[in-house]
Amino acid sequence: MHLPVVYSTICEKASRLQHRKEDFQFLQKLAMELEAKLNEHIRVGLDWGICHGDLQGNFNTNFCEDNTYTHFDFDLCGYG
After folding, report:
1. 76 within 8 A of 53, measured Cβ to Cβ
2. Rounded to whole angstroms, what are the CA distances from 30 to 11, 36, 37?
3. Does pTM surpass 0.90?
4. Percent of the chain with pLDDT over 70
5. Helix (H, G, I), strand (E, B) or coil at 62
6. What pLDDT, on a 0 to 100 scale, did the predictor assign at position 75?
7. Which of 7, 10, 37, 56 is the most buried (most CB within 10 A)?
8. Rounded distance, CA 44 to CA 1, Å?
9. C-alpha torsion angle, residues 17, 23, 24, 26 (rounded to 10)
């Protein structure tokens, strides 16, 4: 099974990397390894929830004295 994000992204790069075959082969191998790992996790079951898309430092985080924190910036989030 090819994961659309991984597979299509690598296919898009093929024409742009014709002059760098070794680099493209490295990316293909890496994509295949990533795909295998992701498929492995998908088979055993993944936790799903809100994923934050731009977590950065402490700009959007309130750190408390009891070593807890609240993150409050969900403009670039989604389910994943």
Report:
1. yes
2. 13, 10, 11
3. no
4. 66
5. strand
6. 65
7. 10
8. 15
9. -170
What 8-state DSSP symbol labels residue 34?
H
Helix (H, G, I), strand (E, B) or coil at 77: strand
Query: What are the phi and psi torsion angles at 44 (to 5°)?
Result: -85, -10
Instruction: Encode pLDDT of 44-65 as tens digits.
Output: 887 776 666 666 665 777 888 9
| Contact criterion met (CB below 8 Å) for 9 and 35 | no
Alpha carbon 47 to chain centroid distance? 15
Rounded Cα gap, residues 63 and 71, in angstroms: 9
Does residue 8 contact residue 35 with C-beta atoms inside 8 Å? no
User: What residue has token string 């950065």?
Assistant: 56
